[in-house]
Write a structure and sequence with these properties.
By secondary structure, the protein is an alpha+beta fold. Helix content is 33%, strand content 33%. It starts with 6 loop residues before the first helix and ends with a strand.
């Protein structure tokens, strides 16, 4: 007994394994679960973020800690080797299923043969011996949009072959979506920038990037934040925040300008800039008749009590004395505290206050826009795949219906079958049979039909 398997046999066994429907379902469920995890767990955040939100004690759900997240790559799920492996194996399973099942099924559906014996009709789900003829059947089938082939005293008709093509288009669409996703992972990048109003920046703070993403990161243009502002509701809550952005070439030319807000990004040359966050960058103040100072502000730790930014303003040239200024938002109000920590006054943009014999004027509060910047060349491929999926699903709803007829020994045999929508198909066939009976009765009323099944 020869225990060695030929390479061709090994390949066929391998294809048979990966084309298994149960394996495809398990892979699809695994991809779905991992994708859900990537949606629930914040992606591409800092180490301190995960340490703060996923501490070791108490661990979330008893096991999910920042160490587990980093060890398994759950902070960048969609670019891990095991997630990509799932996509590749699932793609191979779909491809194998397409070539071993769907294409042969389509090939078999395109092939047909005439029924030459009455016994062949007995195997069909719907069959009858009628008092009609092929000649009278043809116009009835034409009315139902059947393709008809006739040879001597036999007939074959079909419609809905598109329903057999639909599953293949669905598979192609799914493979296209997977290919687009992997192409985006390998060639795209994700960045974050916090930029003060009036500043210009180049995309540099790259959080994630694929191994072939260098060509996607722009180096011949930059972005200027012309202005950042926030609209507030009547009760002081944030309604929307906006960034007026300009794309600037290396020669200083404005290539594109747009005002973005949440759900309305700026797109240029394959790169998309999303409005996602905001902050306060600085405060402009004037002491007496001095030049205007732009003082940086820092976000204070309020123990989750809200956002507050603060800065220290010297009131003496030797910096031995000064006041603290706290700012809550961009509505234009700041609070002034003395060195003892007592609130001394509240001041708005354009107003002045006297402190230790010095007139302090608040000129402006400068906001910063938080931008998420993303390039994903795989998006058009993914959209194409989704379009194919929808087209394939619609095509799959068409029923593949087949009809055979035979005239032999003064008898007329009729049979039909379909792969779906059985009830409506039966009604269609019964209407054809009734039409044949009515036509026959008008000529020979003494010949009733006999059902074979």
């Amino acid at each position: 007994m020869n225990l060695l398997l030929k390479p061709g046999s090994i390949f066929r066994r391998f294809v048979g394994i990966i084309a298994n429907l149960k394996l495809a379902i398990i892979l699809l469920l695994a991809i779905a679960v991992v994708s859900i995890a990537g949606t629930v767990i914040e992606q591409a955040q800092t180490l301190s973020f995960y340490q703060q939100n996923y501490p070791e004690s108490p661990a979330l759900y008893g096991f999910l800690t920042w160490k587990v997240i980093l060890a398994w790559g759950l902070n960048h799920v969609y670019s891990t080797w095991w997630y990509l492996s799932l996509l590749i194996i699932f793609s191979a399973s779909l491809t194998a299923c397409t070539f071993t099942r769907q294409l042969p099924a389509l090939k078999a559906a395109r092939k047909w043969k005439y029924y030459q014996k009455p016994q062949q009709f007995e195997k069909l789900a719907l069959s009858a011996e009628l008092a009609g003829s092929i000649k009278s059947l043809i116009p009835l089938l034409n009315e139902q949009n059947y393709q008809i082939w006739q040879q001597d005293h036999t007939l074959y008709a079909r419609k809905g072959i598109i329903g057999r093509i639909g599953p293949i288009i669905v598979h192609i669409g799914m493979l296209t979506v997977l290919a687009g996703g992997m192409w985006g992972i390998f060639t795209g990048f994700f960045a974050q920038e916090m930029v003060a109003s009036g500043n210009t920046f180049k995309i540099q703070n790259i959080i994630e990037s694929g191994p072939f993403s260098a060509s996607q990161i722009p180096d011949n243009w930059s972005v200027k934040v012309n202005r950042f502002w926030i609209d507030y509701t009547d009760n002081g809550d944030i309604d929307q925040f906006y960034s007026d952005l300009s794309v600037i070439s290396d020669r200083g030319e404005e290539l594109k300008r747009s005002t973005i807000h949440v759900n309305k990004p700026l797109r240029y040359n394959g790169v998309t800039l999303y409005q996602t966050n905001w902050s306060i960058a600085a405060a402009k103040v004037q002491l007496n008749n001095s030049p205007i100072f732009q003082l940086p502000v820092a976000k204070l730790d309020t123990l989750s009590a809200g956002n507050i930014w603060g800065t220290w303003i010297p009131t003496k040239p030797d910096l031995s004395s000064g006041v603290s200024m706290l700012i809550k938002d961009l509505q234009g109000t700041a609070l002034i505290y003395n060195q003892q920590g007592d609130l001394t006054s509240a001041i708005r943009i354009g107003q002045s206050v006297d402190i230790d014999g010095i007139r302090l004027k608040l000129i402006d509060i400068i906001g910063s826009t938080g931008l998420q910047i993303k390039a994903d060349p795989g998006v058009p491929i993914v959209y194409t795949g989704f379009a194919l999926l929808m087209i394939g699903v619609v095509m799959s709803y068409f029923s593949h219906s087949q009809i055979w007829a035979l005239e032999q020994n003064h008898s007329f045999y009729f049979g039909a079958k379909t792969n779906r929508a059985q009830v409506s198909f039966e009604r269609e066939i019964l209407s054809i049979i009734d039409a044949l009976d009515r036509e026959t009765e008008s000529i020979e009323p003494s010949q009733p039909s006999k059902s074979l099944v």
